[in-house]
Amino acid sequence: MMNGQQYRDSLRHLKPKVYFMGEEIHDVTSDPSIMPHINAAAVTYDMALAPEYEALLSAKSHITGKTISLFTHIHHSHDDLVKKVKMLRATGQQTGSCFQRCVGHDGLNAIYSVTYDIDRAKGTDYHNKFNNFLREAQEKDIFITGAMTDPKGDRSLPPSRQKDLDSFVHIIERRVDGIVVSGAKAHITGAVNAHGHLVMPTMSLDEADSDYAVCFYVPVDAPGLIHIFGRQTNDTRKCGGCAIDAGNAEYGIVGGEALVVFDQVFVPFEHVFMCGEHEFAYSLVERFATAHRQNYGGCKSGLADALIGAALLISEAQGTEKATHIKEKLVDMVHLAETLYSCAIACSCQGYALPAGNYMANPLLANVAKLNVTRNVYEIARLAQDIAGGVLATTPSELDWRDPVVGRYVDKYMAGVAGVPAETRMRLVRLLEAMTCGTALVESMHGAGSPQALRVMIGRQANLEHKKRLAKKLAKIDE
Amino acid sequence: MAKVKVSLRYCGSCNPHVDLGRIAHHLAGVANRRGDLLLVAGTEESVDIAVILCGCERSCGATKEAMDNAKFSIVVAGENLSATPVPEAQLPLIVEKELARIIEMFQAR
Q: Which helix (DSSP H) or strand (DSSP E) does residue A87 occupy?
């Protein structure tokens, strides 16, 4: 397994096409806008080798028997599913931000099971090819993104009837040695600092959309691949020497998402895991979505751990920690965070084996977990902002704190209780700001599935007929 | 020839997506017709075949203890038989076929 520095070094050997703010970025490892996201991903490598964390961040490969990163592991038990949630919480506590590798991890597990199903139904050889790829991914310990969401264009039309057929990634040419694809994937977490992308269809497809039923792996610097890095709230604070104002200067906020354009990208068949088998697109989407929604109860409870700590510290810095309402709000934050964690643990314990032998979380409970995240994270953030006070919105810049003329005023009036200097209070304010405002919240809303998508799945899985029978029995209503 | 001992175990039925009783009733009929199998309660120890009836994919009934108690196990988990999707209407017959296949194996020994 690589350590964090080896991971950074490995990125320098790659030549992805990356654009941000009107410029091409030739070395992501030295760009201040991207470095925090690299640092966050690097934590997953370092923690896997640290004695106190390796039990959670490493596993034994079911293919080779060697110790591998959990992020390249295929779940083979309930314990594996629970371990993933605990791993995500532990890592989120350290970074206070998204560390990006879980999306690809979920893609690996979903594709592992669906390639097995396709082969069983159609006599293809996808599962074997996928296992070959997986073995290499495990041995090289690569960071793989999960690229599912298409830009989608007109959402009332299927892919093949779009005005712009590139609204969804699709096959434009079949050659003897591979396929050529065109289109784009949106909101791809960690895209610019990964080793490659695992691309999957984003919705159920019928026969007319067979060219869109495509799943493959492509290295991040494949010819024709273009990454356009997305903006985030306060992203310019990453630059210009304002580490305090950035809030979470080392790890940033959210994962660093990009629009990934596939401009006639060639994919060799050894890395193609679905090629037209449209009947299996929905299975792949559902299994990936279930795995990914399971995650949020883990990572977001980890982030909440750090946020609750920051809220308590700011209350201590401001002398409000003994107030009853402050204590109550902190308890509320803990309650909300542990509710998310409970949901993630529950869907893991209630998971089951798929025909391929790997385990998946329970879909109903995973969707419940994520739907709770779309609400609880906002409420946790609101409570943190309530505790911090209006200073969250008005704190002077770090540059003014360092200014030779006004710095002494900032130092004097931003100080907390006796013994708490202005710098400490400002650092806490900025961390709270980074973790509770803007992009950080939107990611909790829409990552792994927007609220309505979750509600649709919950409605489908709710077993409403059984519930009606229960009520009829109690009310003594005859069938 | 000794009868093949077949136990029926239920998961607990907190979330039944399929009618488990219908499968059990069908197997009782099979036992009456065949005469070479003995249907026993799920609590019976050391059986030949355990038919584990779980109402949904969570498969709560398919515990290690339940599986270790039998030489062979057939697990129904919602609309799945041993992890293969089966529509509810076909479950009783598919379970019967699987049971017959395993009994044949026993009798061939």
A: helix A78-95
CB contact under 8 A, A355 and B77: no
- Predicted TM-score (pTM) of the model is 0.91
- A350 and B77 in contact by Cβ < 8 A? no
* Distance from C-alpha of A261 to C-alpha of A258, rounded to nearest angstrom: 9
A134-152 pLDDT, tens per residue? 999 999 999 999 999 999 9
Of B15, B17, B59, the CB nearest to A352: B59
Of A351, A353, A463, the CB nearest to B83: A353
**Does A466 sit within 8 Å of B15, measured CB to CB?**
yes
Structure confidence by residue, pLDDT tens digits, A303-338 = 999 999 999 999 999 999 999 999 999 999 999 999
Mean pLDDT of A27-34: 95
Torsion of CA A321, A324, A330, A335, to 10 degrees: 160
Q: Which two tokens stand for residue B60?
A: 């709560």
Interface of B with A (CB under 8 A): 15-17, 56-59, 77, 83-84
Of the residues B58, B76, B81, the best mutation for testing chain A's interface (the one with the most A CB atoms within 10 Å of its CB) is: B58
The verdict on ipTM greater than 0.85 is no
d(CA A382, CA A399): 28
Instruction: Locate A346 and state its tokens.
Output: 């529950």
